[in-house]
Amino acid sequence: MMRKPTLPLLIIAVLCCLAPGAARAAVTLEELLEQTRNVRAIEAEAHAARERAFLADRDQQAKRLADAQRARDAAEARSKALSAQFDANESRLADLDETLTQRLGSLGELFGVVRQVAGDGASILYDSLISAQYPKRDEFFGELAKSKELPSVEQLERLWFEIQREMTESGRVVRFPASIVEAGGESVPTDVVRIGGFLAVAGGRYLDYLPSLGKLGVLPRQPAGALGALAQGLATARDGYVEAAVDPSRGVLLAMVVQRPSFVERVAHGEAVGYVIIAVGALGALAALYQAIYLIRTRMAVRRQLARLEAPTPDNPLGRVLAAVTPDPANIEETAEVVELRISEAVLREVPKLERFQAFLRLAVAAGPLLGLIGTVIGMIITFQSITESGSSDPRLMAHGIGQAMIATVLGLGIAVPLLFANAGLASMSRQVVQVLDEQSTGMLAESLERRRAGEAQHA
Fold first, then answer.
1. Can you tell me the mean pLDDT for 244-270?
2. 223, 257, 291 — which closes off a domain?
3. How far is residue 185's CA from residue 183's CA, in Å, rounded to a whole number?
């Protein structure tokens, strides 16, 4: 009978079975012992190989560490050397700057101020009207502003002189000979009157300074009215005081004034719609003027008729009404019955003449803004068409259409408002005359009824 193996033997058997080098399971204890010995030898050899690999790798790591430390030490040494050289250069640069500052003294500040003043003055003198009398001053200022060298004494003196001359001439009114450029491009010598740096005239015409040519040129368009008369008076004056215009903006306002379109140009800018609106307004104005004269004469004639009601005349509405409804003494009964109808007929016959053209004026008042709206729509269509064709919203391209739209609107309102007041005035004048006719006809009707009652009382 076989005994059960003890616990240590079972553990050894399991370990042997799990050993990687075991080819087969041990059957006897001697085989198990041999396998255990072989396993231990294999494991010792593996551990020794791993230890040798670790030692070789450690030597390589130590060598690389030593190389890195040597490189770091070299870099630190170079950094210290460069830092020392940088500090030395900074110190030398500071010493040189201090030496330069000491040697320059106030010349450096003077040089900066001169360049700044020359740069600012060059732009002023380039557009100055005084440069037409004293040319090429801006070139000197420009060269001085761009110079890299210290200015000489002569240059400083001329800089001061030109600045002083600009200030002095800005407060003087002088006459000097000059060559001006006409509108066609030709140069003509003439006498020029200059008011400071603000305005210049020659021969009653306003001039503009042309910086590119260094000459004065005649404005293509001259202001009309009072400004033209002032220029003429200034050009012919020789002494004393004379009234003149001054442009404080040195030509900007004058250019805007001369570019302002006249009334005829504004109307022409409205094109066909503008002419239609003006035609409607002119017809309405003529009709209103004609009717106003007629009503004034009629009111005067009615006042004269009121002073002598017993003698009606056919030259006024009241006289014609009185003549139409005067009762016949021979047939008082028949007259009293039809007198009211005769009065109404006579008054209604006069009303159309008194209210003549008022319907047309009301139509013109309503049509004016509508025609202006049509012109506005046409102008906006032109504006959008220009945007579509050009592919951009340049204000200069849209100005024509917007200008036409605004002109048409202004013209429409311009005829509507005066005609509205004119129609109201004519309606008031006609109502006064009609009221007088109604009052007098009512009085005549009452008188006719009283006569009828008196006649009936006598018959009774």
1. 74
2. 257
3. 6
